[in-house]
Amino acid sequence: MYASNVSCTNSKPCSLRATAPDPAPGSRHAAPPVDLCTAAEVVLGRIPRVAHTSVQPVDKAPHAAAPTMLPIAIVQHVANDGPSFFATWCTQNGLPFTVYAMHQGNTLPGNLDAHSGLCILGGPMSANDPLPYFPHLFALVREAVARDKPLIGHCLGGQLISRALGGTVQASEHAEIGWSTLQATDAALAQEWFGPGPDHVLFQWHGESFSIPPGARQVLHGMHCHHQAYVLGDRHLGMQFHCEVDEPKVRDWIVEGHQEMQDSNSPGVQTPETILATLTQDIAASQALASHIYQRWALGLPR
């Protein structure tokens, strides 16, 4: 793992903070060879080291996927924030994907010619940090919008999309850790993307939040953080929450972030005991909601 040189203003468990190494001279995005990780381990967000092996982006192409469909590009920033249920859902629905594990030294694609869409995951760094691969990631976001290739951003991912499209990222009104009940800002749009009902319960772990980028429409708001989700056009979604969580991910985060939770005086931060008490049923409900979100998002993927 590379040593961290970023702040943790985004308030995520930080025992696994990592950044990509500085690019090699003459190449903005190149990274030295690092360790290989298996597809299964990347999907689970647990990526151990295997010495002396050059790493490549990990492809996951389910047998059921149409052979002509391009894979979704998934950008993973840190080891403990992998695609989790998003990868599970894609696999179950025959959607191929490629994980670009930036903390393992992967290089982002030069463009999106070989990808059908772009998913950006979360992490403890700030969207305002000067990480060497962020400028190119911003360019990929703008390319996706220009070419109508669907974007989806989870937490930090939603913040990065906002920044790339002219929005801002700043300290949230209150830090949020745990389950949060969110309300529809645009009822029709919220029903389309999140299903029926005025309220939607989703998992949070963040200390910063995004503004709604120019041209986008706010979909959800919350009590402790107003800007929770936005839609741009008919196929791009930015979220402040983590609808991709599964039970192992949440349990890992609680272990790593236990002290942060204890030290916080934010009204948006729950105790570990509160989260764990009903975690299994809460995750089941969250994944049912996530399935609706991902199904709507996937409608924009070229087939």
Tag the structure with descriptive keywords:
Rossmann fold; 303 residues; 9 helices; ten-stranded mixed β-sheet; alpha/beta; 21% strand; single chain
**CATH architecture assignment name:** 3-Layer(aba) Sandwich
Q: Count the domains.
A: 1
Give the termini separation: 37 Å
Could you name the CATH class?
A: Alpha Beta
Give the topology string: H per helix, E per strand. HEEHEEHEHEHEEEEHHHH
* Rg measurement, Å: 18 Å
Strand order of the largest sheet: 1-3-2-4-5-10-9-8-6-7
Q: What overall geometry do the principal axes of the alpha carbons give?
A: globular
| Number of alpha- plus pi-helical segments | 9
CATH superfamily: Class I glutamine amidotransferase (GATase) domain
Helix vs. strand class = alpha/beta
Extended strand count? 10
Helical fraction: 25-40%
What would you say about this model in short?
By secondary structure, the chain is α/β, with parallel strands linked by helices.
Describe the model.
It is a single chain. This protein is α/β, with parallel strands linked by helices and 303 residues long. The chain has one domain: Class I glutamine amidotransferase (GATase) domain (Rossmann fold, 3-Layer(aba) Sandwich), CATH 3.40.50. It has nine helices and ten strands. Strands 1-3-2-4-5-10-9-8-6-7 form a ten-stranded mixed sheet, with helices on both faces. β9 (229-232) and β10 form a beta hairpin. The longest helix has 20 residues, at 279-298. The N and C termini lie far apart (37 Å). Mean pLDDT is 84; it is low at 1-9, 14-55 and 61-66.
